[in-house]
Amino acid sequence: MKSLDPHTLRIDDELELLAALVPLADQRIAELGCGAAALARRLLLRCPGSRVTGIEVDARQLAKNLAAPQAGLEFVAGVAQDIPFADAVFDLALMLKSLHHVPLPAMARALAETARVLRPGGHLYISEPVYAGPFNDVMRLFNDEGAVRAAAQAAVDAAIASGAWEQVAERRFEMPVSFDDFEDFERRMMRPTFADHRIDDVKLAQVRAAFEPHLRDGAARFDRPMHVRLLRKRGPAAGA
What is the domain extent for residue 84? Predict the structure, then answer.
């Protein structure tokens, strides 16, 4: 499936975009709100000399992560607005669909905390879903993130305006996501460990009715629009 917009990138693995924008070898990396840390695990297979610290607030997800160790990867409990590390210890920070999950009053502090733990010249890679498209039309029936996604972008704008950061790259792309059937969608998107969407039988039927027209040839396939902003912490780079 090609992008409807010929000027929009279509990316199957976001690690390829990340690798094109910032150095990944021999880096100390923090992923804030890491979830299952799937990208981090692939990154370390590609760059075994790097180290990744996954910071996760959800206790059940953190327990799953700790039960699946990998060389170079550590997990700690924490939140982006109160990062449990000293100043200037990371080269790169990742926020992969996580900034909009930070409570609105704490978004500015989360970005300030990220700047604190990065070395001067370090990068922050922020990847956020765009509030548009067929996939979003289904998702917003039970999890409408329009306000929080807009707030996340506004927080980034304000952080840049503060002088703490400069934006060095921006990309928009589409990422494919597919589901075998509605039950697969319900399990993965409607029943995550970190959220309670309070879904009753009426809501479940409404979402099913919106989802099932997308089933073709044994699967429902979507292109999820994404927006990446790469920031650099202002200040002299290490060794300068």
Answer: 9-176+225-233
Is 204 within the bounds of a domain?
A: no
User: What's the number of domains the chain is made of?
Assistant: 1
Q: Of 6, 29, 4, which is closest to residue 19 (Cα–Cα)?
A: 29
For the segment 95-122, what is each residue's pLDDT rounded down to a tens digit? Answer: 999 999 999 999 999 999 999 999 999 9
Asked, for residue 73, whether it belongs to a domain, the answer is yes
**The two three-digit tokens of residue 31, written as one number:** 């992923």
Q: Evaluate whether residue 183 is within a structural domain.
A: no
**DSSP E strand stretches across the chain:** 9-10, 28-32, 51-56, 73-77, 90-96, 118-129, 165-179, 215-216, 219-233
Is 220 domain-assigned? no
CB distance 29 to 50 below 8 Å: yes
| Cα–Cα distance, 196 to 7 (Å, whole number) | 37
Q: At 128, which CATH number?
A: 3.40.50.150
Q: Is the pTM of this model over 0.90?
A: yes
Within 10 A of 196 (CB to CB), how many other CB atoms are there?
A: 8
- Rounded Cα distance between 223 and 240, Å, is 42
